[in-house]
Amino acid sequence: MFTKILIANRGEIACRVAATARRMGTKTVAVYSEADAGAKHVAVCDEAVLIGPAAAKDSYLRGDRIIEAAKAHGAQAIHPGYGFLSENAEFAEACARAGLVFIGPPGSSMRAMGSKSAAKQLMEGAGVPLVPGYHGDDQDPQLLQREADRIGYPVLLKASAGGGGKGMRVVERSEDLQSALASCKREAISSFGDDKVLVEKYLQRPRHIEIQVFADTLGNCVYLHERDCSVQRRHQKVLEEAPAPGMPQDRRAAMGEAAVAAARAVGYVGAGTVEFIANQDGSFYFMEMNTRLQVEHPVTEMITGTDLVEWQLRVAAGQPLPKKQHELAIHGHAIEARVYAENPEKGFLPSIGTLHYMDTPAHVAFELGGQDSTPAAVRIDSGVRQGDAISPFYDPMIAKLIVWGADRAQALARMAQALSEFHIVGLATNIAFLKRLVEGQAFATADLDTGLIERNHDALFPQAGPAPLGVLALAAASLLDGEQGIRPSANPADPWTSTRGWRMNGHYRRQLSFADDYAATTEAKAYALGVTYHPKGWTLDFGGNKHALALVARDQDRLAIRLDGNAVQGTVRREGESLHVFSGGTHHVLAWEDPLAHAGEHEAAGGRLTAPMPGKVVAVIAASGQTVRKGEPLVIMEAMKMEHTISAPSDGLVEEVLYQVGDQVADGAPLLAFKAAA
């Protein structure tokens, strides 16, 4: 076994590998960019090496620097994690030339499966069923147009070297193909350095089923059953679970055996995932093979009682697989939710900022499950801590929230509860959306397909309603209690220095003003609460009704109040003049209008279309003086290697274009001056 390994990655996977290595008695070396100098993965490893500036191409994608660091620090092996260089055949071979073990498959396996086109040609020769499509090398746009027309719409354009939903477009009409192709190629070259694409028939209501395979250097290969990853947005996974709901044992075996056959066909070694697209009738087609550990591997660990990272280290050291196929039974049900810094209400745009406050549900950092032990009910894999920043340079994942249950119903209940206890302040997250998704009828009843989110859009993105009285009462109690006490250096016996609302004859009355802190596109609702002070509480006057309010207990930001005799509990976190109220599984943000503070100034839109997130301008389609129609694309931006199109909000005139291709822009920066038509 290795005495020291270098982890050529960052974030939660680097922390995850470090934890397993430590348990096995193996020391770890972290690599980090200038942006990650204070990152969690740097702190949890035994040693750390700076390898370059923030941009991934200058740091985490510099294989030469990573190999130099491994040799300089005495590491015998390199664990690539996932993403970055994990599926780079040249890097794997460079490690071997340097006398280092690459903890993953050989370069030949990566080359065979790394190109979606080549992999599908290989599977076609092996008799594995494929979705109708074009997987050839000729990338002439007119040829791709003819092939798409031949296949029939809708079609899916997919980056041949891609993954993670990047470089993918669904095209509904022939006339839209060329613009989608150009966008797909731009995103592919930015993310993978290769703009080759393939064209496939886009199946209606398919499920995304993947099989975890593992092979050693001694000729053994097993499958660790399946994961259902059907719940996706923009072709990126949101929820994953194992086993797949409704999977018959005979189909599980057929898919597992097909996955093992695919791995054997390319001489595979280590952890890999063979992905299938499955119709509702049970038929399935090979989609691709990911030649690395997957983000969603924890759900497999939880139901099989395995540590897949430990398996990786043992196999890379030349040891046999720890278990044989008949020993890999399924125990219970596991679900994983990816907690992201993003705004679902704004098309899942990434959110950049600092985690000023992060309160997680009771959990373990890592826990084995399996037939002979009961796994932890809640597990969190995370590469960030409270106070860390989510930067624009890397994937905006905050954590993976994994739950286990004896059956799917228990796992669902645990996931809903855990999400209600996951509180973050400082940037937008998808936590509330995930809770609606988990509790929604479609997911709860396992009515699954890759279009689930779009199909249930109205239920998953409800119109924001007014804040409940209990939320307003919690916010009021937090403010009022925080104001109470004696001013510093004052005489405790002097009632005139008290801030408890004391009056000699009568009661002190005041008003608290709140407003919903909605997105700029939503009209905020204002709330005026009359407050009357009493020795043991307050009376709230709201909407013409009076309500008795008393604070029962407070533990920092956690409050227990009594409202009209009813118990209400929640957490109130203040950030400037915003109050984040977490109660009953909901998160409400209220803007407190402090009459003693300077009123905030609001920018007027001024006819300027603004950047929805910080990023880079990759295409300017409109020109100054151009007349445009509603919905026409004007500017295309890129953030975190995903493209976002800014379109005309109405018919009108582009008066001035303020940025050019290649310019970096801040969140909210005016991109162009626009005048709506009369």
Observed structural traits:
five-stranded parallel beta sheet; single chain; 17 helices; 5 domains; Rossmann fold; 678 residues; eight-stranded antiparallel beta barrel; alpha+beta
Please state the overall shape, judged from the principal axes of the Cα atoms: globular
- CATH superfamily membership of the largest domain: ATP-grasp fold, B domain
- Round the Cα radius of gyration to an integer and report it: 28 Å
Number of domains: 5
CATH class type of the largest domain:
Alpha Beta
Number of distinct beta strands: 41
Largest sheet: 8 strands, antiparallel, barrel
Enumerate the strands of the largest sheet in spatial order, edge to edge or round the barrel.
26-27-28-29-30-31-32-33
Helix share of residues? 10-25%
What does this protein structure show overall?
With 678 residues, the chain is of the alpha+beta class. The protein folds into five domains: 4-103, 3-Layer(aba) Sandwich (Rossmann fold); 132-201, Dna Ligase, domain 1 (2-Layer Sandwich); 207-460, D-amino Acid Aminotransferase, Chain A, domain 1 (2-Layer Sandwich), CATH 3.30.470; 469-592, Glycoprotein, Type 4 Pilin, CATH 3.30.700.40; 608-676, OB fold (Dihydrolipoamide Acetyltransferase, E2P). Helix content is 24%, strand content 32%. It is built from 17 helices and 41 strands. The strands form eleven sheets. The protein has an eight-stranded antiparallel barrel. Strands 3-2-1-4-5 form a five-stranded parallel β-sheet, sandwiched between helices. Strands 6-9-7-8 form a four-stranded antiparallel β-sheet, covered by helices on one side. Helix 4 runs antiparallel to helix 5 and helix 12 (408-420) packs antiparallel against helix 13 (431-439). It is globular, with a radius of gyration of 28 Å. The termini are far apart. The relative contact order is 0.08.
